[in-house]
Specification:
single chain, alpha/beta, Aminopeptidase, Glycerol-3-phosphate (1)-acyltransferase, 12-stranded mixed sheet, 23 helices, about 40% helix, elongated
């Protein structure tokens, strides 16, 4: 939601009065939502992705009120089932977060000139900066300040934008946002703009300054230079900005954060902090984290610790994925493109060299997932559907390299267990009556949403392909890529030809000895009291057609605790296809029994302890489990199987909506 003018002005006032963190001024950027405290004077800026609420730095308020504001945000997140992530919080505030039960993770360090008034370019430590500054001075470059609030100059702004476009074109990833500011020339504020210009009036580089510490601190938020600019442009800007800062009584100047720098420096670093160290040391071809830190280090700054703080014990992959979709304008997939060099391949393609073009298209044919990353969501869905149907027409739904997917499955299972462990999810298997067989097996778990796919795989453990209907979250998602590597059959349920292609692929897999995971309910169970939904007959039809066993599995969730109950194999060798609906009802009875056994094994609760809002809380909890889940309640209901002779409660009582209450029918509404 875009802030109103009054809200923006109010946030500006709070930034001027209370902004201690160098990223505080980013609160005013147009990509942020604003949360104003209801109890104190304070504001926090944030963005939402799925069920992750990513906040920019520390909340902005008086230092003594930070604890109260944080508690208000924690309560807000609890009501809305958000996972909180405070990005780039200061070391001095970490103890307050810990006292409230939040978890800090070191995310990097900030380069700070702590004593601006005592700074000098003299001395051995600043020799390289001094040499570069002299080089720029000798070339006749000069530093000027642009004051758009006094007089707008469209030529200066055009060159600023031109340099920014050049800078972005040279990156392997798309434009960063959220923790990086913009020029923001369309709204008067406290930003300062300094640029270096040559004797011909060509701007060679520019810096944008944001204030903090009630105007006693500056951060160089944006640093950009023209491609092929003379040596020393940025050093000259830094020198002159420091001299101006000294004259204006500025106490502290920040060069900004160095993400993932020195994250594992403490005792017993956490998994996320060790992962950050690995990214910093080994993944600089994706984004130059290490060169960025080395560049800032030459200005001889002090290094101050920065933290990521969450309301979860660990940082899960899904949280990282959501945060990346906010920080990077094209999300986590943008880093995957950079990892595999897609940007360079596209650049080579545009040269028109036939050989390169041929190699590029062959590469894309072999790596369709990478190609999908370059499409928008709608085009991606159409591309995947068309490709599935084309393959069906070519080979009638045949599956290939089953052995390779089985090998990938065995490699992925330990990684999946680790991901769920660090996400705080735990699995208990109540009972396992399944017997090993040489026949193909169709595993039929109950559909409870959240992490039920992951828990199904961990329960079964053996290689098996997953059937996924309407997989719109998975096309441009890293989880979807891993699922494809494991083995998956995806289709859009609304398209008959796509359903036919998927069924042919399932039959081919089973006849070749592969296993399937199918959720015969079609949609997750959102009933207030039913053990599971009615079942589609597809699983039984496949078992009869292919001579496969069905293994029913009941899944149940209590917060982050998952329970599985695995039933005995069901053989359909002596069954006739015409009996499929009766056999499907029998399968449903077995799955319901398994579900009931789980419920009976858990501690009982009294009816009087059940809140009036229990069902609403249950629904809200379901849709908050997965941050990438885009389905709505109506989507789930539309996907449920409904037998022709079944009438649900909503239909039975639908006449109530048409009745106008009066004294004669008041008893229908529980009143007299």
């Amino acid at each position: 939601m875009v802030a109103t003018v009054d809200e923006w002005e109010k946030a500006l006032e709070y930034c001027r009065r209370f902004g201690r963190n160098s990223v505080s001024y980013l609160t005013l950027e147009p990509d942020k939502n604003l949360y104003f405290s209801e109890k104190i004077e304070g504001v926090a800026s944030y963005c939402i992705s799925g069920r992750v609420m990513l906040l920019c730095g520390d909340p902005i308020c008086e230092e003594n009120n930070l604890r109260f504001f944080l508690q208000e945000l924690i309560d807000y997140a609890k009501i809305n089932r958000y996972k909180l992530m405070f990005l780039f919080t200061l070391a001095e505030t970490v103890s307050t977060y810990r006292e409230l039960g939040l978890s800090p993770f070191k995310i990097g360090e900030e380069a700070v000139i702590g004593n601006v008034q005592g700074w000098t370019i003299a001395g051995r430590k600043n020799a390289k900066v001094r040499s570069a500054w002299h080089s720029a001075e000798n070339r006749g470059l000069t530093v000027k300040e642009y004051s758009p609030w006094i007089c707008r100059d469209l030529e200066i702004e055009r060159q600023f934008n031109e340099i920014s476009e050049q800078w972005l074109a040279g990156k392997s990833t798309a434009k960063l946002q959220f923790e990086v500011g913009s020029l923001m020339l369309d709204r008067q504020c406290d930003k300062r703009y300094f640029y270096t210009v040559d004797s011909n009036g060509i701007i060679q580089g520019f810096n944008v300054i944001n204030p903090y510490m009630s105007g006693k601190g500056w951060i160089i938020d944006v640093m950009r230079r023209r491609m092929g600019c003379p040596h020393g442009v940025m050093e000259q800007l830094f020198h002159d900005i420091m001299e101006i800062a000294k004259k204006e009584g500025i106490e502290q100047l920040s060069l900004g954060a160095s993400p993932f720098y020195n994250t594992a420096s403490g005792e017993n670093p956490k998994f996320f902090e060790n992962a950050g160290k690995f990214v910093f040391e080994h993944l600089n071809h994706i984004y130059g984290f290490k060169p960025l830190q080395e560049y800032k280090a030459k200005f001889n700054p002090e290094w101050q610790e920065l933290y990521l703080v969450t309301n979860t014990r660990n940082v899960s992959f899904s949280m990282v994925n959501s945060a990346c979709s906010i920080i990077d304008s094209e999300g986590l997939i943008d880093y995957l493109r950079a990892m595999f060099g897609i940007h360079k391949l596209k650049e080579m393609l545009t040269t028109g060299q036939d050989k390169i073009k041929s190699l590029y298209h062959k590469f894309m044919q072999l790596n369709s997932f990478l190609y999908m990353l370059s499409l928008d969501q709608k085009s991606c869905e159409e591309y995947c559907r068309r490709k599935r149907i084309d393959r069906f027409k070519e080979n009638k739904g045949g599956v290939k390299r089953i052995w390779l997917h089985s090998l990938a499955h065995r490699i992925l299972m330990p990684l999946l267990w680790l991901d769920q462990y660090f996400a705080g999810n735990r699995l208990s298997i109540i009972k396992n009556l399944r017997t090993k067989t040489k026949k193909p097996v169709i595993f039929c778990p109950t559909h409870i949403g959240g992490s039920d796919a992951e828990m199904s795989l961990l329960t079964i453990h053996d290689p098996c392909w997953m059937v996924v209907g309407d997989p719109r979250e998975l096309y441009r998602n890293f989880d979807g890529a891993l699922l494809q590597i494991n083995g998956a059959i995806m289709f859009d349920t609304q398209y008959k030809e796509d359903r036919r292609a998927a069924k042919a692929k399932m039959i081919d897999l089973l006849k070749k000895g592969g296993n399937l995971i199918m959720y015969p309910e079609g949609a997750q169970d959102i009933s207030p009291n039913g053990l599971l939904n009615h079942l589609y007959a597809g699983a039984v039809e496949l078992a009869i057609t292919c001579g496969a066993d069905i293994v029913p599995i009941a899944l149940h969730r209590d917060k982050n605790k998952y329970y599985a109950n695995v039933g005995a194999n069901i053989s359909y060798e002596e069954c006739d296809y015409s009996e499929r609906y009766k056999l499907t009802n029998e399968l449903r009875d077995r799955m319901a029994t398994l579900k009931w056994e789980i419920i009976e094994s858990l501690p009982s609760i009294k009816r009087q302890d059940v809140k009036d809002t229990a069902y609403d809380d249950f629904l809200q909890d379901i849709f908050a489990m997965d941050v990438s889940y885009t389905w709505t309640l109506d989507d789930v209901r539309a996907s449920m199987f409904k037998p022709a002779d079944f009438v649900d409660a909503d239909e039975v009582y639908s006449f109530m909506d048409r009745i106008k209450p009066n004294n004669n029918n008041a008893f229908l509404f529980g009143n007299r």
